[in-house]
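Reopening closed ticket. The problem is back. First fold of the pair:
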Amino acid sequence: SFTKFVETGRVAKCAVGKYKGRLVCIVNVIDQNRVLIDGPTSGVPRQQYAVNHLHLTKFRVRFPHTARTRLVRDALVKFDIKKKFSETRWHERAAAKYKRFNMNDFDRFKLRLARRERNRVVSAQYKKMKKVVVSNGMLFGKPRKGTKPLPPKREKKPEDAKKKKKKVRPAKKGAAGAPAKKK
């Protein structure tokens, strides 16, 4: 079921503006489009913010409705929000994206060499394993009864059988493909 509601205490991440990427807490809901946010642990002052400029997280901190900044800070520190958020997949992906974005030309070159080396190792191991599987006859999955080799390949039919004459049907009266004329 859906659990990420816009409510007091919901931890969110700013998506737009000068505080983009910072964790904040919803202190009060002003109307259906705006909320009052506060981010004392991430350096975001208390202000109104558009709901569609926030990414809601799964975390919710408990504090009174329209609590002061000091209470919000204490609640966030007690909840240990930075540590909990840093353990999420969301944070890992964002950190990887940031790292990729800040790569220079030499970093991209080193990455290309590392990928090439990794693929070489993986391909060598795959070919080794495939060779073993093919020799066991297990390429297409495990046979039902025991370990059986693959069935032998069919031999080609003699060429005399291919050269049999085709039967030719007699053509109908009239032009080929056109109906015969009636008299």
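Second fold of the pair, where the issue appears:
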Amino acid sequence: MSLLRVAGGGSIRALPLLGIFRVRRRARAQPARGLFLVNVKVGRGSSNKLSSGLAGAYVSAYVTAADKDAAQRLAITKLTAKGFEFLATQGPVARIELDAWPLHVAQSWPEFIDELPRQHELAAGLEKDMVFFGPFVGYERSA
């Protein structure tokens, strides 16, 4: 460190600034795990869960995962494990905040409120990967 002479005959030590003017880069925080909605179109595949006249179904998959991509992969994996043929996702993967879950269920699936998990069950299971489905809406083969 160097000494600086000041008016009046004294001296002071100059302290290095150690980069206080440099822009500090903040580490990007990992997004918190969340609940995601993945709308999927499936074909019958080897599943026997659809009536014989149906070619496939549309289903809302609800997934707790680290991010949207992981949620989509988990939804597809779970559906194919059940014997369905994955055909496509329908629209973007959406994040649903836990506080909004009761309203989402009441608006989207009021007749299935008792069959879908409650908000506290989702909060308790948020730290692990979980997949559950809304109702399957079947479609017939096109002529």
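Update: turned out to be a display glitch only; the data is intact. The chain has three helices and seven strands. Residues 68-81 form the longest helix (14 residues). Please close again.
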